[in-house]
Amino acid sequence: MAIVERHKAELERKAGPEDRAPSVIEFRGVTKSYGPTNGGLDTASFSIQRGEFVFLVGSTGSGKSTLMRLLIKEIEPTAGTIRVAGRDLSEITRKKVPYYRRNIGIVFQDFKLLPDRTVYDNVAYALQVTGQGRKEIRAKVPDILRLTGLATKLHSYPDQLSGGEQQRVAVARAFVNHPPLLLADEPTGNLDPETSVGIMQLLYRINRTGTTVLVATHDQTMVDRMRRRVLELHQGRLVRDEDNAGYDARTDLNTAEFGALLREPSPEPRRRARTEREQDSGDFDDIFPDGE
Amino acid sequence: MKPAFFVKEAFRSISRNAIPSFAAMASVLVTVLVLGVFIPVVQATTGAANEVRGRVLVDVYLKKDATRTDVSRVQALLGRTDHVGKVQYVSKAQAYATEKKRNPEAYELLGTNPLPDTFRVTPDKPDNVAALRNALTTQAAGGGRIPIDGAIDQVKNRKDETNKILTATRVVKLAMGGLAVLLIIASILLISNTIRLSLFSRRREVEVMKLVGATDSFIRWPFVIEGVVLGALGGVLAVLLLGIGKVAFLDPLASDFALIAAPQTIGFALLAIVLLVASVGVSAVGSSLSLRKFLRV
User: Fold this and answer.
1) CATH number of B57-156
2) Strands laid side by side in the A229-234 sheet
3) Which of the pair, A253 or A183, is modelled with greater confidence?
4) What is the model's pLDDT at position A291?
5) What is the pLDDT of residue A124?
6) CA-to-CA distance for B241 and B97, rounded, in angstroms?
């Protein structure tokens, strides 16, 4: 797939010497409090390596969103240092923040698409922002939309799309600048399970091109099935950091295998129903033991 | 590439948000229309009031036996006095000639000239007329006033008339000034509110743009251009309407009403330019100021 190769090349080209630092994200004793009794994040320390796929889990209010907002420098930490690709975020001035954000793809639970632009224009906007010409836009946008399975919806407006499609547009927009890091805050929070699998497959596919992916979610089954690294937050504290969610897992699955992994084991209720029927038929035999 | 892109963005946003855009344009139109009518009206009224006030003056009557040296001495004295604006000398002979023209028979009967030499002194400002009179006379022990020069017989300021003129014109000017201030405040509030409303409905859009990595100026320019376009559109329409109104209603009446033809009012071309610049400027500055709040993401 051409776009995948291009993305890899783009990542290589963009990577400055400090970008090749193995840690894409590094939190050192990061604390964010919104008030004396209102903690967001409490001395969190961890690092995420280049090319990793990491889940961030925790219940509502555990600090997931705080962590995400810290990463895009929407808010400032109260204490501690955050480094992204070796760069200390506190050194980025307010004016430079937009340039910093262009190197991060962001996907939200509520999609955050521009309502009065078509799918094409929504994705194109992320390129226009960086000052890219019409020619490049025309070359890149249809490619990325094909990758995300939206080739037929180029000229639809967001309100004409289903939730899953809107989220695909958001992923396409996040990915079109070839960011080395992709953040997804509850990307499947508003979607049904089957659509969620599609979105997670998409994120996985993006991860396999070399982009580091951090997904915040509270979908426990999804996390268990994907068997990737899991960071768990509880009331602002990092309480769990496990590789592969405690399972043995292959990291070289292709997307189809990955989708299968997400869908199995098949939902519990159906399996139990079948065993009950088997028992029923046994009973049936018991009732008519002699046949006549 | 970039300016063209911003202009395109602005027009796209106008057409996609037709109703808020129309509201913004209409509010500019109404404001400019009202201002366009009001500015000449204020000017004509204050002009008329000022003209009336210009008639306020102090008469300095000299004694009948005043010599030519007395006259020039008093003239020099008046030149040194505070609050003196313009001094007009009316000699005995001139006064007699004018009065005789007005009432030939009476003066024929009179035979001699009973009129004194007079200085008509206009104060520098109409409100200073009392001060001027005080400067030319001193308080006497008995309660009357004594002129500061021996050759001066009397200093008169036509008291009743003066007071009436001053109060009436002051009320007119204050009322006009107050109305003008209220109108300008109302216009600014109306336009800024309309802009704020239309921006508020798009604050999410601005937020998304910031998250995608758009710089502030990249977001601001299309909004400012949009404001300029809508302001200019409203301004041009209003000026056209004013022009039509002027040609259709005002010009035929101008010969009949002195107020309409008052010379101090602003010329139509200048008025149109002022209104256009104001409408475009206010819309552009308003958009960019209102946007500032939403840009802090």
Assistant:
1) 3.30.70.3040
2) A104-107, A181-185, A212-217, A53-57, A229-234, A237-242
3) A183
4) 43
5) 93
6) 53
B27/chain A closest Cα distance in angstroms = 24
Do the Cβ atoms of A180 and A24 come closer than 8 Å? yes
- State the SS3 of B19-55: HHHHHHHHHHHHHHHHHHHHHHHHHHHHHHHHHHHCC
Alpha helices of chain A — where are they, by DSSP H?
2-14, 64-71, 97-101, 119-129, 134-147, 163-175, 193-208, 220-226, 255-263, 268-287
Which helix H or strand E contains B57, and what residues bound it?
none
ipTM above 0.90 for this complex: no
Interface of A with B in 200-259 (CB under 8 A): none
- Which pLDDT value is given to residue A2? 65
Q: Report the pLDDT averaged over residues B223-244.
A: 91
Q: Where are the domains of chain A?
A: 2-18+51-70+93-275
C-alpha pair distances (Å), B125 with each of B80, B134, B279: 16, 15, 35
A2-18+51-70+93-275: CATH, from 1.10.260.40, 1.10.10.10, 3.40.630.30, 3.40.50.300 = 3.40.50.300
Contacts of B214 in chain A (CB under 8 A): 98, 129
Among chain A residues, the shortest Cα distance to B205 is held by A114
State pTM to two decimals.
Answer: 0.69
